[in-house]
């Protein structure tokens, strides 16, 4: 027996870099669409390549970003913080500046994308840590300090470290990126969700209008079919109509027919 069950719809692959919380957008996606969504974690430094290669359909990324062959809309901007050991001297202040870090070793992880317009604060480490988690572990040991977007400091929070706002460090813009050109309907849906488009606006409204039009066509077709059926139905029997009006009745038995021929005698 042939299986006629249609194959499941392909999932929409949404990438995101560490620290970016995608839960809000994913929740709205599931409220509006029956299409499954797969979340794919991307390294910030590799996100652009992954999008161009088609490994994901779209992704939440940090800027700056190599936007070659990519389109992007900005969503929000994250403030930078400096992560230090729990007992570090800078914890005495509510916020610090880059000048406050002049005597510190800067642990600059390779997986964080920050663009410094001028020299980085402090002194560079002999070797850049490969990951933010590794850099923060070194900061906890008192080896240096780490400058990252605030969401990454929260993501890698430990009992032996804390962080303070760094007021004059570069910010970290976060946006949604996808391959340049004609995006698919699902990419358009995600763009609309991120932009705050409601289910009743733009594409959502057009879908509702199309559904209403289809419903109206179905009602019209049903009425036409009913009218055609009524036109094919035979009319009333004129003899039955004459009988109902009191006209002469035909005899229904042989005896009655004999009396009828003899003039009713």
TrEMBL record:
Q: Where is this region: Disordered?
A: 198-265
**Keywords of this protein's UniProt record, alphabetized?**
DNA-binding, Transcription, Transcription regulation
GO cellular component annotations of the record: protein-DNA complex
Instruction: Answer whether the UniProt record assigns the keyword Transcription regulation to this protein.
Output: yes
Q: What is this protein called?
A: LysR substrate binding domain-containing protein
Q: Which InterPro entries match?
A: LysR_subst-bd
One annotated GO molecular function is: DNA-binding transcription factor activity
Q: Which domain of life is it from?
A: Bacteria
Specify the LysR substrate-binding domain's residue ranges.
Answer: 34-197
The cross-references to SUPFAM superfamilies, in alphabetical order and at most eight, read:
Periplasmic binding protein-like II
Write out the similarity annotation. Answer: Belongs to the LysR transcriptional regulatory family.
Renumbered to this chain, the Low complexity biased-composition regions fall at 213-224
- Residue ranges annotated as compositionally biased, kind Basic and acidic residues, are 225-236
Comp. bias regions, Basic residues: 256-265
A Pfam family that the UniProt record links to this protein: LysR_substrate
